[in-house]
Every structure is written in structure tokens, then in C-alpha cells.
Amino acid sequence: MRIVFIGPPGSGKGTQCRRLSKHLGVPHLSTGEMLRWKRDNTHDGPMVAGFIDGGNLAPDQFVMSMVSCRISESDCRSGYLLDGFPRTVVQAELFDTHLDQRNGQLDHVFQLVASDDELIRRMIRRSELEGRVDDTPETIANRLSVYQARTRPVIDYYADRGLIRPIDAMQSAETVFANLLAMIETNE
Ligand code: ATP
């Protein structure tokens, strides 16, 4: 089961992936979390911080090699949930090449849909609770515009391949999760 989650910052990708990972027993891979770990624990830290702390994207090749290393590990053999990757058309193309070389394919690409007002409200609240350095008003605005410019085209990329499944992410996390499960189970 290989599933990709695409959605603007604050749309709940992480929340849904954590629940689904438990339910399906496949690992949850968040490129945002991987990058924050690299920022805080590796020599690449300052380079990574230069991109992510201001809400800009890390370089495509760098992210692709990080993801291909992780999905080659044994716990990913029966599948994985990708949260926040691919985030650019170049990443989607690199990922397709990676999958083709291994005769793999994606089962679902979910698009979480929510209004900017709701996203901003959620991220401001999260910064109060978790203190993420990129949840400040200026950085949130930048992340939303980076999403429109760089990530929205990824939705068209997968829509052209008949893979996109939009989900209303304005509902409660429980309702979104129930809808996700129904879509996976009926393979609709
Ligand atoms: P959520 O609200 O679901 O946590 P998010 O977009 O706010 O989503 P993350 O997905 O954790 O947060 O990403 C945090 C930051 O990490 C992004 O703003 C970006 O700088 C960087 N990042 C994450 N994934 C990628 C990627 N695939 N390519 C490039 N940069 C990435």
C-alpha cells in the first residue's frame, strides 16, 4: 500500500497519516519531520535550516535521495504513507522514475482541501502549542504561496494520471479519517 498525501500546510496531513499508519501497519514518512531532524542533528543542518525555517522548499535532489534511502529500508517493503512528498513536479517525476525502476506503483494520492482562513487559524494555534519556528504569520503566508506556486501543479500531474482523490479537510479529524478509510476500502 503506497499512498501519497498532498495538501497545503495545516491541512492535517500529519494527523491523518499518524492514524492511518497505525490502522494499516505501514510506516508514516514525513519529509518535513525528516528535514527538521536533519536540521537539528546533522552537518547539513545549517543548509536545511536556510530553506525550511523561512518556509521555502529544500532542494529536489536532496529530498529525493533522503526519501529513496528511507523507502529502501525493510519496514517499507509492504508500503508507506508519504506526507509532504512529492511537493514539486520535479520531485513527482524523480519519484516516478524511482518507482518504475522497481516496478512499483502508487495506490492512492489524496489531496486534502481546506480554505486559507482555516489553515492560518490552525497553524497559529499549532505555534502556540508546539512552537514550530515556521508557524509565524510571515512564514505561514510564504508557505501558502509556495504551496500554490510549486505544489498545486503536482495535483494536476497526478490528476492527469487518474490518481487524485480530493478530500474535504475542513471537517473534524475523525470525519476526515472515516472518509479516507472508506475510500481506501472501497478503492473508489
Ligand atoms: P503540515 O501542516 O501537514 O505539518 P507543513 O507543510 O506545514 O504541513 P511539513 O510537511 O512538516 O509542514 O514541512 C515543513 C517544511 O519542510 C516545509 O515548509 C518545507 O520547507 C520543508 N519540506 C517538507 N517536505 C518537503 C519536500 N518534499 N521538498 C522540499 N521541502 C520540503
UniProtKB/TrEMBL annotation:
Binding of AMP, residues: 31, 36, 84-87, 91, 132, 143
Predominant subcellular localization, coarse grouping: cytoplasm
Keyword Cell inner membrane belongs to the record: no
Record-linked Pfam families: ADK (PF00406)
Pathway field: Purine metabolism; AMP biosynthesis via salvage pathway; AMP from ADP: step 1/1
InterPro entries: Adenylat/UMP-CMP_kin (IPR000850), Adenylat_kinase_CS (IPR033690), P-loop_NTPase (IPR027417)
Binding site for ATP: 10-15, 126, 171
Record key words, sorted: ATP-binding, Cytoplasm, Kinase, Nucleotide biosynthesis, Nucleotide-binding, Transferase
Location of this chain's protein in the cell: Cytoplasm
Cross-referenced CDD domains: ADK (cd01428)
Catalytic activity of the protein: AMP + ATP = 2 ADP
HAMAP family documented for this protein: Adenylate_kinase_Adk
Family recorded in the similarity comment: Belongs to the adenylate kinase family.
UniProt domain comment: Consists of three domains, a large central CORE domain and two small peripheral domains, NMPbind and LID, which undergo movements during catalysis. The LID domain closes over the site of phosphoryl transfer upon ATP binding. Assembling and dissambling the active center during each catalytic cycle provides an effective means to prevent ATP hydrolysis.
Subunit description: Monomer.
Biological role: Catalyzes the reversible transfer of the terminal phosphate group between ATP and AMP. Plays an important role in cellular energy homeostasis and in adenine nucleotide metabolism.
Name the record gives this protein: Adenylate kinase
Species assigned in the record: Rubripirellula amarantea
